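[job 4471] stage=fold_predict status=RUNNING
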Amino acid sequence: MAIIERAVEIAQSQRGADATPSPAAPVELPPAASQDLAQELPKPPRASFRARSDSSLTGRDLKRIVHIDVDQLREAGRLPSAEAARRTEDEIRRIKWPLLGAISGRAGHDPVRNNVILVTSALPGEGKTFTALNLALSIVRDRELRVILVDADVERPGLTPALGLEGSPGLNDVLEDTGRDVNSVTYQTDVEGLYVVPAGKWHDQAPEFFAGSRMPQVIEDLIRRVGNGVIVLDSPPLLATNEAQVVTRYVGQVLFVVRADDTEQRAVQEAIALVDKSASVSAVLNQVQSSVLGSYYGHYHHNYGPGYGEDPSRRRGDTSDEGSGA
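[job 4471] inference complete, writing structure tokens
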């Protein structure tokens, strides 16, 4: 049985025989992800994570309201096929461990805001949503970390409809209404430790909302609420909208997805040049054919911190990823 299916089975079995998903409604966050899920995967050497305050979090009125339907998500191209699941899970591990290492302050990284990870690409269709979802599912199985997965692609959301949250209040509503708390649009899933914030209602002033003073406040609130955990933002493509460029100011790490044999080098160069220089940039080469990868799959993952070189073509790191999706 694939790890993703096993994770869902474990989480759902913990609800008890008489527990059923309740109608969609926002909830407050419970304790961190279960140890059972963390034990599903082998772990690299442990790092020391600095816990954040969880004083605002509570376990009352917990309701599992978002069902992670593996078959449906596979059909939509948001999870790997059953045949590719094992290999993709291993590849996602190779992506997540350097990101988690940066959070802990290893390898010379400044851990400030490194638990806020923006997943983006140069153009639509390169696999950023696939990568963001699978990264979030992988992280909640490791180190008992919570993950808040945010659909920040408010113009063309991919996660929101895939998870059945179309029409639900989300990020854009919080940015528009300063009186609305981000916890009111944070939804629990039936995978222990995983929470989602949908895109919310589209507004023609969304670029201004992202560039305004409200956005950093929302990011700080998410940091406070996730506690000893990780925020993963599925961002719009950098060359398609203005929002992604603005959000790079407020994150510690940017995971840049490049579609193999499809995205032009010039587009990659132009997109990476838009990333705020305070963020650490990592790259994922997506949809690499297995015949090219060879027996060891050709996994490479390079992390680029502040002050990286001026030639963007030298900033690309390659890793294989079978996924598709926006």
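[job 4471] summary: The mean pLDDT is 75.
[job 4471] exit 0
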